[in-house]
Amino acid sequence: xxxxxxxxxxxxxxxxxxxxxxxxxxxxxxxxxxxxxxxxxxxxxxxxxxxxxxxxxxxxxxxxxxxxxxxxxxxxxxxxxxxxxxxxxxxxxxxxxxxxxxxxxxxxxxxxxxxxxxxxxxxxxxxxxxxxxxxxxxxxxxxxxxxxxxxxxxxxxxxxxxxxxxxxxxxxxx
Length: 174
Description:
44% of the residues lie in helices and 20% in strands.
């Protein structure tokens, strides 16, 4: 069996999503796939090969750079996506948190049938957010009684497992 190349295309705002994309790539490597990481902000070429789309979520939507990249590469993204996921705070608060956003992302790319997942990412420090964002997050956490939102850490182990699952599934199908 020859190794399969799989692209992990990610859009990150503060770096958590980039770390998780690297862990997904490590999981893919663990099962014999050849991962290729693409930061969509760099606007590099997109290969015609299976891909995983991973986006940070800001205020219930993928980050703007990811939305623009999906629009610019709609045909290839729709044709080659085998998994899509989101990075958001709610994934660290509840077991199924963030899956609604992953479903929305899958519909946005026109592939509601792909493997979907949500990973927890860290809430950035106050100094890295716009002041209104910080206060809105504080209000949201208080309203929803979720103070743990500010103590969530990047879940690299779960991202690695996602990479292994997608890699194993894709290798079996190819």
